[in-house]
C-alpha cells in the first residue's frame, strides 16, 4: 500500500509531492499526460510563493525569469489604467516549471508515473484506505490528494455538488492560451485587456516568450465559429490588444483551449479525498494567483499530513483542519476575484470602472491586495 497518492501532476500536486518526499514520506503522483506539456494557464506566479519555491529547491534567481512589477488594464474604448503591482510576480511557463518539479520529486525519491489515468477512487472505511482504479492497474493508498485541475471525470465520480450549479452551467466559460513572440513586450509588465464578454492577460515567461491567456463565454465562441474568428472579430475590438497582436508570431499551433471553466463554490475535501489547486477552488484568472494558491495549499497540506502520519492527527481531525485552513487562506480571495470579475466583460461597465479607478488609484491598489496573499 502506498502512503500517499496524488492524482494530477501540476503545480499543486508536484509541490505537495516534493514536500512529502523531502521529509521521507512515500508518495506516488499519477499524471495522465507526459512531461513536458503545455497547460491553459496565465503563467504568472505571485511573489508570495517565491520563498516557498526557493526552499523547495527551485533556483529562481539563477533561472533569470521575468520579474513582473507593473500592471496595465485597458477597456475596449481605449481607457487605460497603469499601476505598480505591489508584491509583484514571476513569469514562467507550465511547460518548463511542471517538468522541473517532476524531476525534483523523483530526485527526492518520489514516484511520478506519467501517462496514467485514474478512472475511479473509493474510500474503504473498514480498511481505512483508498482503492484506485487506474489505466496501469489497481492502487491502494492511505491518503489520496486530488490535484486534477478545474474539472475531471473524478468530479462526477465523487458527485461533487458544484457540477449541479445551473447558474454556472448557463454561463459556460472557455479559456484559451497562446505563446507569442512579441519582442517589444516589456518583461516587467502584465497587461489585462478587456473585450465584450471576456478579457485577456499578457505577460512574459522564459525564453523571450509572451503568454496570452483569455477567458470568454462558450456562447461567444459558438457565435464566432472558431478561435481564430473570435480573436479577429472580438478580441481585436480592444485597440490596445489589437496593437499588441498585430506583430505577434504564434509559437503554439493550434492554441490550447478548455471549456466548462467554473468559479462556483467547491470544497477542499470530498469523500475523504483532500483537494488542492483548481480542484479545490478556482480564482478568477484576472487575479493572476491560481498558481500561488495551489502551491500554498500544498504547503499547508504537507504539514498536516506529517502530523497525520506521525499519529498526532486522526483522519477526521486532518480533514477538519485542512478545511479550516483552506477556507481561511483562500475562501475570501476566491469570492473577491469572482466579485471583481463581474465588472469586466461589459465594454461600457469596464470603461467606467477603469476610469473610476484611474481617478482613485488607491482603490485600484486595494483591489490588487484583496486577491493576493502573503509570503508563506
Strand content: 25-35%
The tally of beta strands, per DSSP, is 17
Largest beta-sheet characterization: 9 strands, mixed
Give the terminus-to-terminus CA distance.
Answer: 32 Å
- By helix and strand content, what is the structural category? alpha/beta
Q: Which properties best describe this structure?
A:
17 strands, eight-stranded mixed sheet, nine-stranded mixed sheet, 376 residues, alpha/beta
Would you mind describing this structure in some detail?
There is one protein chain. The protein is α/β, with parallel strands linked by helices and 376 residues long. It is 37% helix and 28% strand. The strands form two sheets. Strands 3, 4, 5, 10, 11, 12, 13, 14 and 15 form a nine-stranded mixed sheet that branches. Strands 1, 2, 6, 7, 8, 9, 16 and 17 form an eight-stranded mixed sheet that branches. The radius of gyration is 20 Å and the shape is globular. The protein starts with a strand and ends in a 6-residue tail after the last helix. Residues 164-170 have low confidence and may be disordered.
